[in-house]
Design goal:
The complex is a heterodimer. Chain A is an alpha+beta fold. Chain A is 27% helix and 31% strand. Chain A folds into 2 domains: 230 residues, Rossmann fold, CATH 3.40.50.300; 83 residues, OB fold (Dihydrolipoamide Acetyltransferase, E2P). In chain B, helix 10 crosses helix 12 and helix 11 packs across helix 12. Classes of the chains: A alpha+beta, B mainly alpha. The interface between A and B is medium-sized, with 26 and 20 residues.
């Protein structure tokens, strides 16, 4: 099967050639057809630039980008069979919802009747059937997002790009839209590529994801792989805010003298031992659990204590325990940041 | 808890804990305006409202009133009786020609300014940053700093038969082109400085900044993502220009065209200095209220641009030019 999107050593540098800012630095990436693919990373990690390289708003400084096997490095955005849902939705304020959705068909020369029919179909798909006559300014954030989605999908793209699609929505709406996007993707069967800095969103929606850091991909894999077996300290820390243990501390806790990660939810408070004890510095109540922060051997360790279990006080001295299988030893230095 | 008590004990005046001491008149005024927000608003807008209402709209009303009076043919005195006679006089061929000529020139200047201004405004809004932005503003504003009369006379010299354009045409062996342009019927003439073409050029030059600035402001408000969305949905550059950029920039274009259109309609100096001495509305007003002493007809002439602007704005609104506002 041909890959939907393929990056071959793609770089995008900004600024002066003698002191470039490497927004994307020699990235290799393959996105399978029909995948729900997430690009996850902090701001400035290169994930959005990667998305813009696929849509054609950025040109690679070097390397090749292929969409369904065809090299698109020299193809302008309007001739790529990909469509984008923009972060700010970028709906045209002077057009009503129907004309916004029909825009892509209009510029391709489809007759008014036909394109309005298609637009209405798409609006029903995103559950906005009666909103055709409204202006974008009369819609809520969630509705605008659906219009942006309909406007992109009406063109029957082979790859749909979503730039922080849920970033502007409130929590409740975000969760609903996550489910809807997921089921929409499964129904339409087209490849979704979405950019997010929210690790929960990436883990819950994507069937595979790439974690970006400093213009490079730190790790690619399924959500489960990345969560359970982070390859680097960065991934461990960024995805699920894992406890990152320096070699000394790993050894004190009974592991090998190597960098390791330990999930807060797999860690329990225990009676302090001579080797490993720490001082509780803060407690954060999260509802279903409480996040207990403690200083241990100069490293901050977080422990999630489920609701109903006894909590320590700030300043108490405590130890930790965990099942041996929870400690994940990392292959360090793989992306040059040990 | 003990520590807290001893601390508040040090502050003998209990009121000082919650309320800071007043620091004179400024604090007292701030307090007054905070309690009565409408007072500040009233203080701020009363003087300009008086100016606008009495001096500005008042004089406009006086003008309107004058236009409904007429002049006694024999005595030359203004008859202060309401009549539409003066307006009927506007329709006399000589006067009608003046209006039609001015209207055509104003329309041509507006279109010319819009076409010239768009690329400049687009560049400034989309690409100019930092120092280039400063260069842009300086370049646009600099001509406005020098005297209008000096600029117009300078243009007369540039366009004159012995001027730099004739000289440049000779030097580049393109005199034939210049002569061909000057032989065009109606808009041509003996030289550029005595033709409608020359007048059009001078008008376009002096009013261009008034088109560029509002256009640039409205283009700057079109987010880059809007243009990307258009391209993403398959539009060519020309389609994006027609269906996204122009409609969104239209309020600025209209604002600019109000300037260029009304400034051209009312100007009485350029048609005197450049061109073939044909009469324009501004000149007619100038002559009628001065030498001829026919204030009512001068007033009626002055009302014409106002009426035309109102019709223009109404048409623009109906065409949806302000939908993006």
């Amino acid at each position: 099967m041909t890959a939907a999107v393929e990056f071959q050593s793609v770089s995008r540098h900004f600024g002066r050639p003698n002191a470039p800012v490497k927004a994307v630095d020699a990235v290799d990436l393959t996105i399978a057809e029909g995948a729900f693919f997430a690009m996850l990373g902090p701001s400035g990690s290169g994930k959005t630039t990667c998305l813009r390289l696929i849509s054609g708003f950025e040109k690679p400084t070097s390397g090749a980008i292929r969409i369904f096997g065809q090299d698109v490095s020299d193809v302008p955005p309007n001739r790529r069979s990909v469509n984008t849902v923009f972060q700010d939705y970028a709906l045209f304020p002077h057009l009503n919802v129907r004309d916004n959705v029909a825009y892509g068909l209009m510029v391709k020369g489809m007759a008014r009747r036909a394109r309005y029919d298609r637009a209405e179909e798409m609006l029903s798909l995103v559950k906005l059937a009666d909103y055709g006559d409204r202006k974008p300014a009369q819609l809520s954030g969630g509705q605008r997002q659906r219009v942006a989605l309909a406007r992109a999908l009406v063109n029957e793209p082979r790859v749909l790009l979503l730039d922080e699609p849920l970033g502007a929505l409130d929590l409740k709406l975000r969760e609903t839209m996550q489910d809807e996007l997921k089921s929409l993707q499964q129904r339409l069967g087209i490849t979704f590529v979405f950019v997010t800095h929210d690790q929960n969103e990436a883990l819950s929606m994507a069937d595979s994801l790439a974690v970006f850091n400093k213009g490079k991909i730190a790790q690619i894999g399924t959500p489960a792989e990345i969560y359970a077996k982070p390859r680097t300290r960065f991934v461990a820390d960024f995805v699920g805010s894992s406890n990152v243990l320096p070699p000394d501390l790993t050894a004190l806790l009974g592991g090998p003298k190597q960098w390791a990660s330990l999930r807060p939810e797999n860690t329990r408070l225990a009676v302090p031992t001579a080797e490993a004890s720490g001082t509780v510095t803060a407690l954060r109540y999260l509802g279903a659990s409480t996040r207990v922060l403690m200083q241990m051997n100069g490293t901050e360790i977080a422990v999630l204590v489920p609701a109903g279990q006894p909590l320590p006080n700030q300043g108490d001295v405590s130890g930790i325990s965990f099942d041996a299988g929870s400690l994940h030893v990392m292959a360090v230095g793989l992306d040059g940041e040990a | 808890m003990m520590a807290h008590h001893s601390r508040s004990g040090a502050n003998s005046d209990a009121a000082m804990i919650a309320i800071l001491p007043e620091r004179g008149l400024a604090d007292r005024l701030t307090g007054l305006f905070w309690r009565k927000p409408k007072l500040l608003l009233a203080l701020m807008i009363t003087p300009p409202l008086l100016w606008l209402g009495v001096v500005y709209l008042g004089s406009l009303a006086a003008l309107l009133l004058q236009s409904f009076y007429s002049i006694d043919e024999f005595s030359g005195m203004v008859v202060q009786e309401f009549t539409l006679k003066t307006y009927a006089e506007l329709l006399r061929p000589a006067n009608y020609d003046v209006i039609f000529r001015t209207l055509l020139m104003a329309a041509a200047v507006t279109v010319g300014c819009a076409i010239l201004a768009f690329p400049i405004a687009y560049f400034a809004a989309r690409f100019a940053r930092g120092r280039w932005k400063a260069v842009f503003y300086l370049g646009i504003m600099l001509p406005l700093w020098s005297s209008y009369l000096v600029k117009v006379y300078a243009w007369k010299l540039i366009l004159a038969k012995e001027g730099i354009i004739t000289w440049a045409a000779e030097a580049t062996q393109t005199s034939a082109v210049l002569d061909a342009i000057l032989t065009l019927p109606v808009i041509g003439g003996n030289s550029l400085s005595t033709s409608y073409i020359g007048m059009f050029m001078v008008f376009t030059y002096v009013w261009l900044p008034y088109m560029i600035l509002p256009m640039q402001a409205s283009l700057e408000r079109v987010p880059a993502s809007m243009l990307e969305a258009s391209a993403d949905l398959g539009a060519t550059r020309a389609q994006t220009l027609r269906t996204v950029i122009l409609p969104l920039a239209m309020p600025g274009v209209i604002a600019g065209s109000i300037f260029t259109f009304s400034l051209t309609m009312g100007d009485y100096i350029i048609p005197q200095i450049v061109g073939n001495s044909a009469n324009f509305i501004g000149m007619a007003v100038y002559q009628l209220q001065g030498t001829a002493g026919n204030i009512p007809l001068a007033a009626a002439f002055a009302v014409v641009p106002i009426v035309i602007m109102v019709i223009y704005l109404w048409l623009a609104k109906r065409a949806g030019a302000f939908d993006a506002l």
